[in-house]
């Protein structure tokens, strides 16, 4: 008998009420009592000895399975029964081939179809939910898949096979099927439907790659679509439930293989490449000094230069993610994924080859306009391949000649209605509430503004923004009155960035400050900036190295103010990308996904709830580690922090990331943008009513929370059922102790004892994956595609009166401004990335929608009706948001040239639309 061992990451027992046995032991015991009879089947030459034993899918490094001698069989493969009556049932097996196949694939598929047709390709074993008292395990019958169903699919890449069973009438309801793939390669199983039982059709949704027996001799377990808490698991499925979870966890050893579905944790130690160049070495993000969430373990060997860093796999070779987490073929072949890979592998190198020899700043604003009007002429030997491999909706392209491609950028939304909007102070302020990064603005609650940094290192804590300077802009109001009336707000990057400014400014072509911007919200409902403080680290000669700027009225002050705003936007762009986008959505979500697969069975109701919100995230994160956030990657090349980018992300995780504050209402209260009000929806009232991100976000948050609460209450109706759910408790413990290991001892982690606790945790996770990511991600090109509006880096400090560049600035201020922006190569790179990251795939699954592939996700009519109500609620929200965008009283989302706020509209078509909430972080 097999006794499960605790997982290596923390001390807890495997989540079953009794120690499970290995599948081999289960089946061997069943055969010993003569309860299985099978039809003899031909053996393939590649088939391992002893395959007749049923085994759990465990990594080749985790095998603890034996084989059993098959008993004598009769002619129909039926299970013996005391009852004389039997029933005939049929399993319909739906398999998806590649949509586009080469000649070799077609030949192989024909051979596999032939082998399936004669019963030598796929073996199906059907397991009852009822236990055989003689064997103490579920009743089992077996049949090969053979032949084609009478009604083949009208889609050529869909194949349907049948497996016929004769079972005794007391067999019970089948709760699991085990699949053995005898072919030489994997296949994609869509679902199995069993017909013939009194319950009607029984669905076993899979949507999973079934590995070849030659890669792993163990069978795959697929459960039916009935949700069970661990304590409710039918007796015949208990061992299988545990074995399936064990197979996913692995043993933490060895390098992962592409066909595996092992989920495990590793630190961010794969961003650098010291073996290639010592300048590409990057610190490991883990531990007290540089804490960070964990990623999915790949098990690659360490680098030769640093035993603590993992060796890299460079593009175009893929980084391991569990097999079912990879992009499906339609996504790979169409927009997002294929475009992203083509972007990294083809377009960026071609841009570099074209522009690197003349990587100059923009000389005039018309140079920027040419990107949209004339395009970029790519001259590269792989130029034709660029066009063929890129499916860029917003990047119009044309082949001019062999090896030459014309790339034209679509005009971004921020300048498509009003090309001068970005210059205005009210637009600069509006974007803190309705732009791509509307999550950093805070209400100013006290004055003077103080730093929390060590004054011995960073100088006096007081800001250089004085009371007198602010009161000049308050229309006769005192600063105390303005604070009391919730009229002052701040965008404060001082403490986050100042510790890194000296290192950032030592990089070639990078010059940055740590910024603070104070805003005044007037009685007309208009937010405008009134003062900007730009700080450098103190020196012996300048212990208070701070500069304060105001908008002014003369030409010189106006141009200096533009430069100051550009530096603020550069700070904002970096924090947006590294903290709010990557850290708070992508990186923080990954441990939730890993723990969900490791500890919640696919039959667990919470797994079923979370499943659509995990789609593609591990794959997109792996791709980002390979080409976006890696040493020498696009983020380092195009954003101000350069090689220190991920260290800033780690510092932000250390200083400000809290799970309990990732809930939207809690975040708004923390920033002072809302106050508690039990009479209002979500229990809070916005300080600025016309705050589009927050106003629309609270609608989405409320709908998610309502759906989650009724879902949770349906499955956890008994007192104590949450605290007694062993899978759920192991899941939450691992998220805290392993997934966010460096924060494991923080007191703010929510408890998980009640339905309210669970609903709050799940709502936060689903909001992070859906609404929060949509608000932060899909506006990147609409707002950032015009470089002057959101420069990702600034190349020069603001000229001071006693400096040589000041005279040049006075003579040609436009040239000074443009030469401070990213170069043409940097700009075109980041525009291409932003365009791609802002794109919806045609197979996108949006919040409140269920893809046809997952239409049988749960066998519970009450839950399906509740989901319909959730979907209907989201439709109502879309109408509400559209109405808000037409309300002329809401100045931050309507008016002359003002783009409507659509980032939290639930639905969208494909492409760069600036709207739509996908279920998951899928790009």
UniProtKB/TrEMBL annotation:
UniProt cross-references to PROSITE patterns, sorted A to Z: LIPOXYGENASE_1, LIPOXYGENASE_2, LIPOXYGENASE_3, PLAT
Indicate the enzyme's highest-level EC class. Answer: oxidoreductase
PLAT domain boundaries: 93-224
Domain (Lipoxygenase) spans: 227-923
Q: Which portions of the chain have biased composition (kind: Low complexity)?
A: 72-81
What is the E.C. number? 1.13.11.-
Q: Which InterPro entries match?
A: LipOase, LipOase_C, LipOase_C_sf, LipOase_CS, LipOase_Fe_BS, LipOase_plant, Lipoxygenase_dom_3, PLAT/LH2_dom
What family does this belong to?
Belongs to the lipoxygenase family.
Function, please?
Plant lipoxygenase may be involved in a number of diverse aspects of plant physiology including growth and development, pest resistance, and senescence or responses to wounding.
GO molecular-function annotation terms?
A: metal ion binding; oxidoreductase activity, acting on single donors with incorporation of molecular oxygen, incorporation of two atoms of oxygen
Give the UniProt record's GO annotations in the biological process aspect.
fatty acid biosynthetic process; lipid oxidation; oxylipin biosynthetic process
Q: Keywords assigned by UniProt?
A: Dioxygenase, Fatty acid biosynthesis, Fatty acid metabolism, Iron, Lipid biosynthesis, Lipid metabolism, Metal-binding, Oxidoreductase, Oxylipin biosynthesis
Which PANTHER family does its entry note?
A: LIPOXYGENASE (PTHR11771)
Q: What is this protein called?
A: Lipoxygenase
Per the record, which residues fall in region Disordered? 62-81, 287-311
Q: Which residues form the signal peptide?
A: none
**Which pathway does it take part in?**
Lipid metabolism; oxylipin biosynthesis
Cofactor(s) listed? Fe cation
């Amino acid at each position: 008998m097999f006794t499960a061992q605790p997982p290596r990451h923390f001390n807890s027992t495997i989540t079953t009420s009794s120690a499970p046995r290995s599948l081999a032991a289960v089946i061997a015991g069943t055969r010993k009592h003569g309860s299985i009879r099978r039809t003899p089947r031909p053996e393939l030459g590649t088939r391992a000895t002893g395959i007749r034993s049923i085994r759990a899918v465990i990594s080749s490094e985790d095998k603890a399975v034996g084989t059993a001698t098959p008993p004598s069989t009769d002619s129909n493969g039926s299970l013996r029964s005391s009852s004389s009556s039997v029933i005939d049932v049929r399993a319909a097996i739906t398999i998806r081939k590649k949509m586009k196949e080469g000649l070799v694939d077609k030949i192989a598929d024909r051979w596999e179809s032939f082998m399936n047709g004669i019963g030598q390709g796929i073996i199906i074993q059907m397991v009852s939910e009822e236990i055989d008292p003689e064997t103490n395990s579920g009743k089992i019958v077996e049949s090969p898949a053979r032949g084609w169903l009478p009604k083949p699919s009208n889609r050529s890449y869909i194949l349907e096979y049948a497996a016929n069973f004769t079972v005794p009438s007391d067999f019970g309801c089948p709760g699991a099927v085990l699949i053995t793939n005898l072919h030489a390669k994997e296949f994609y199983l869509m679902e199995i439907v069993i017909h013939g039982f009194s319950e009607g059709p029984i669905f076993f949704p899979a949507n999973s790659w079934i590995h070849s027996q030659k890669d792993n001799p163990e069978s795959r377990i697929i459960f039916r679509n009935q949700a069970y808490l661990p304590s409710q698991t039918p007796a015949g499925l208990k061992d299988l439930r545990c074995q399936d979870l064990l197979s996913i966890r692995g043993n933490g050893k060895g390098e992962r293989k592409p066909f595996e579905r092992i989920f495990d944790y590793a630190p961010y130690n794969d961003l650098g490449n010291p073996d290639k160049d010592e300048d590409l070495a990057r610190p490991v993000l883990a531990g007290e000094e540089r804490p960070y969430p964990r990623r999915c373990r790949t098990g690659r060997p360490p680098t030769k230069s640093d035993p603590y860093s993992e060796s890299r796999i460079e593009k175009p070779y893929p980084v391991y993610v569990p097999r079912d987490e990879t992009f499906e073929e339609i996504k790979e072949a169409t927009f997002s994924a294929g475009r992203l890979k083509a972007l990294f592998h083809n377009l960026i190198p071609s841009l570099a080859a074209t522009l690197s020899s003349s990587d100059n700043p923009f000389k005039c604003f018309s140079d920027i306009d040419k990107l949209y009007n004339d395009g970029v002429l790519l001259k590269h030997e792989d130029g034709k391949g660029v066009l063929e491999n890129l499916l860029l909706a917003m990047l119009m392209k044309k082949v001019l000649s062999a090896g030459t491609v014309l790339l034209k950028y679509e005009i971004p939304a921020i300048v498509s209605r009003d090309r001068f909007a970005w210059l205005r102070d009210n637009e600069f302020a509006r974007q803190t509430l309705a732009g791509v990064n509307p999550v950093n603005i805070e209400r100013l609650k006290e004055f003077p503004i103080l730093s929390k940094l060590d004054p011995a290192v960073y100088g006096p804590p007081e800001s250089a923004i004085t009371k007198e300077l602010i009161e000049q802009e308050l229309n006769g109001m005192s600063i105390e009155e303005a604070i009391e009336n919730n009229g002052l707000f701040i965008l404060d990057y001082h403490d986050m960035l100042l510790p890194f400014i000296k290192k950032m400014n030592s990089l070639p072509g990078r010059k940055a400050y740590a910024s603070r911007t104070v805003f005044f919200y007037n009685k007309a409902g208009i937010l405008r900036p009134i003062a900007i403080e730009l700080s450098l680290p103190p020196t012996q000669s300048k212990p208070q190295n701070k500069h304060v700027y105001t908008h002014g009225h003369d030409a010189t002050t106006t141009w200096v103010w533009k430069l100051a705003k550009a530096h603020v936007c550069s700070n904002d762009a970096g924090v947006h990308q590294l903290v709010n986008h990557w850290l708070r959505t992508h990186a923080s979500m990954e441990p939730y996904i890993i723990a969900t697969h490791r500890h919640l069975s696919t039959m667990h109701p919470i797994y079923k709830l979370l499943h659509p919100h995990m789609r593609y995230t591990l794959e997109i994160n792996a791709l980002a580690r390979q080409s976006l956030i890696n040493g020498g990657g696009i983020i380092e090349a195009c954003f101000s922090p350069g090689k220190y980018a991920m260290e800033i992300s780690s510092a932000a995780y250390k200083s400000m990331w809290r799970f309990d504050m990732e809930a939207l209402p809690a975040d708004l209260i923390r920033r002072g943008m809302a106050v508690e009000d039990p009479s209002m929806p979500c229990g809070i009232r916005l300080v600025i009513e016309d705050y589009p991100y927050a106003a629309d976000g609270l609608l989405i948050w409320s709908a998610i929370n309502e759906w989650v609460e009724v879902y949770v209450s349906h499955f956890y109706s008994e007192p104590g059922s949450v605290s007694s759910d062993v899978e759920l408790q192991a899941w939450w413990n691992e998220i805290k102790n392993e997934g966010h290991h460096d924060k494991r001892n923080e007191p703010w982690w929510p408890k998980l004892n009640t339905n309210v606790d669970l609903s709050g945790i799940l709502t936060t996770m689903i909001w992070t994956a859906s609404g929060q990511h949509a608000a932060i991600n899909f506006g990147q090109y609409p707002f950032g595609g015009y470089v002057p509006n959101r420069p990702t880096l600034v190349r020069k400090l603001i000229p001071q009166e006693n400096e040589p560049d000041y005279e040049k600035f006075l003579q040609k201020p436009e040239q000074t401004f443009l030469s401070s922006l990213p170069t043409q190569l940097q700009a075109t790179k980041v525009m291409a990335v932003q365009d791609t990251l802002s794109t919806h795939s045609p197979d996108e699954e949006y919040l409140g929608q269920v893809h046809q592939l997952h239409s049988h996700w749960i066998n519970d009519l009450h839950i399906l009706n509740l989901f319909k109500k959730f979907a209907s609620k989201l439709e109502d929200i879309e109408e509400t948001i559209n109405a808000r965008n037409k309300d002329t009283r809401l100045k931050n989302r309507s008016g002359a040239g003002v783009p409507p706020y659509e980032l939290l509209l639930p639905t969208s078509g494909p492409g760069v639309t600036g709207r739509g909430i996908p279920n998951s972080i899928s790009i």
